[in-house]
Amino acid sequence: MKPPNRKAIEPRPFPLIGNLSRYAFNPLAEAIRARKRHGRVVRYWIRTPARTVVAWLITSPDHAEQLLVERHRSYRKADTYESLRWALGDGMLTAEGELWRRQRRIATPAFGRDRLREMLPVAVRHTAALADRLANAPRTADLHREANALALLVLCETIFSTAIADQTARIGEHLEHMIKHAVDRIRIPIPLLHELPLPANRRARRARSSMNALVEGMVTEAERTGFSGNDLISLFMAATDPESGERMSRTQLRDEVLTFLAAGHETTANGLSFTLDLLARHPEWQERAVAEIQAVVGTGPLTFEQLPQLDLLRRIIDESMRLFPPAWSVERTALEEDHFDGHRVAPGDMVMLSIWATHRNEEHWPDPDRFDPDRFLPANSAGRHRMAFLPFGLGPRMCIGKHFALFELQAMLATLLPRLHFASVSNAPLHLDPLVTLRPRHGVPLRITPRATAQAAT
Ligand code: HEM
C-alpha cells in the first residue's frame, strides 16, 4: 500500500522553525481549520535547539479511544506537562508509573459516593451565600470571578476539610501567575528565557513560593488537628508505602495538595461560568431549567437523592462542556511506534488530542456550534460514538474528580438559578483563552436580577 502523503497533512511551515507555532498560538481555530483542510490527522513540527519535535493533532473519537484507552500503554504524559511540573511539582496530574498508580489508589476514597453526599450541604451553603450577596446588590457582576472564588471555597472545605474563606483571592492570584508562566514555558520552549530575572518570571516565582508556603500551612494545620477521615490531606497523610512502611514525604504531600487545588477549582469554575453565560444567552433554556429545579426541589433544601432527577440541568451542563470543554486538550508522548490512519507516529513524537475540536466534529455533532442540550437526550444519543464527548478524558488517566465536579456544578446551578435571573450584557461571543484550561479571557459579565423582582416586573 502507498504510504499516505505527508505533505498533504502538514500546514505550511515557517522557514526554519516549522509549523507548530500555527497551532500553539491559536489552537482552537487552528484545530477546526486544520481538520477541514488536512483531515483527521494533522502533522505539526518545531525545530528546537535540541531536536525537531513532531506533534500530531487528532480530532476524532476513534483516535481518542486509540490514544487514551486501547494503546494507552504506548504513551506517557507529554513534555508539555513538564512545565506544569514547574508549577505544581510531581503530583498526580503529571506523575507516571508506580508513583501515579499509588497516589491514585490512595486518593480514590476521597471521591466516594458517601463523601459526595457529605459535600452537598457545603456546596449549597457557599452557593446560597453567593446568591444572597448577588441578590442584595442587583447589578452586573463578573460571574467568572465569583465562580472561581466559590469553587475554591467548596473544594477546600470538602476535599481538604480546610476553611480558607479569607484566602481565596490570594490563592486565585498566585495560581494565575503560576499557570500563565507554565503556559509560556510550553509556547516558547527556550528554558533559559524563563529563568532570566524579568518581572514576569520574578512574579511567577514569588507566586510559587507563596503557594508552597500556603499549602505547607494547610498541611501543618491538618497535622495539628489530626486525621479527620476521608478528606484528601488525611488520606495522603495516613498512607504508608506497602514495601517500606514509610509515610509520604512532605514534598510529595505538598505537590498533591497543590495539584488538586489547581486541577480541581479552575476547571469547575470555568464550567460554571460558561454554563451561566450560555443560559443568559438562551433565556428559554434558563426558564426550563428553573421550572425543573422548582418541580424537583420545591422549597426545601436540595438533597443528594434529587440530583439525578435534575435531568435537564445535567443535559445543559453536558452541552456547555461540549461547546466549552474546560480541559480543552490532552497530550501524550509516544513511547513506541503507533499509527493513526496509516501515518506513523515515531517514539518521542507528541500526540495532541483536541477535545475542543472533537466536540465540534460535524460527523458526530450536526450544526456543532449550536447550543442544544437535547442532543444528550437518550433518543438523540443513540448510535453516537461513545468517545465523541470526553470532557473528563478517558482511560486510566481519566479525571479523578469527574463525579465531584458534575455533582458540584449541579448543586451550584440548582441553588443559583431559582433565585437569580441572569442576562447577557452583550451579544458578542466570549473571547476564549486556551491556557491549561479553557477560560473566558475577559471574564463573564452578566446582569443579575433577583427572580422575585424579575417576575414582579413582568
Ligand atoms: C468540570 C471540571 C473538570 C474537568 C472538565 C476536568 C477534566 C480533566 C481531564 C480531561 C483530565 C485528564 C487529563 C489527561 O488525560 O491528560 C483530568 C485529570 C485530573 N483531574 Fe480533572 N477535571 C475537572 C474537575 C476536577 C476536580 C474537581 C478535581 C479534584 C478535586 C480534578 C482532579 C484531577 C486530577 C488529579 C487529574 C489527574 C488524574 C490522573 O492522572 O490520574 N479534576 N481532569
Give your account of this protein's structure.
A 5-stranded mixed β-sheet has the order 1-2-8-5-3, sandwiched between helices. Strands 4-12-9 form a 3-stranded antiparallel β-sheet. Mean pLDDT is 89; it is low at 454-458. The chain has one domain: Cytochrome p450, CATH 1.10.630.10. It is an alpha+beta fold. Strand 1 (41-47) and strand 2 form a beta hairpin. It has 18 helices and 12 strands. Helix 6 packs antiparallel against helix 7 and helix 8 (168-187) crosses helix 10. The structure holds protoporphyrin IX containing FE.
How would you sum up this structure in a few lines?
The protein has 458 residues and is α+β, with helices and mostly antiparallel strands.
Would you tell me the overall average pLDDT?
89
How many helices? The count is 18
Number of domains: 1
Give me the CATH superfamily: Cytochrome P450
Fill in the CATH topology.
Cytochrome p450
Number of strands: 12
Compute the gyration radius: what is it? Answer: 22 Å
Percent of residues in β-strands: 5-15%
Order of strands, widest sheet = 1-2-8-5-3
N-to-C order of helices and strands: HHEEHEHHHEHHHHHHHHEEEEHHHEEEEH
Topology of this protein?
Layout: H1 20-24, H2 27-38, E1 41-47, E2 52-58, H3 61-70, E3 75-77, H4 80-88, H5 97-107, H6 113-136, E4 139-142, H7 143-158, H8 168-187, H9 191-195, H10 199-225, H11 232-238, H12 250-281, H13 283-297, H14 311-323, E5 329-334, E6 338-340, E7 343-345, E8 350-354, H15 355-358, H16 378-381, H17 402-416, E9 420-424, E10 432-434, E11 438-440, E12 445-450, H18 451-457
Parallel strand pairs: 2-8
Antiparallel strand pairs: 1-2, 3-5, 4-12, 5-8, 6-7, 9-12, 10-11
Helix pairs in contact: 4-8, 6-7, 6-17, 7-12, 8-10, 10-12, 12-14, 12-17, 13-14
The structure holds protoporphyrin IX containing FE.
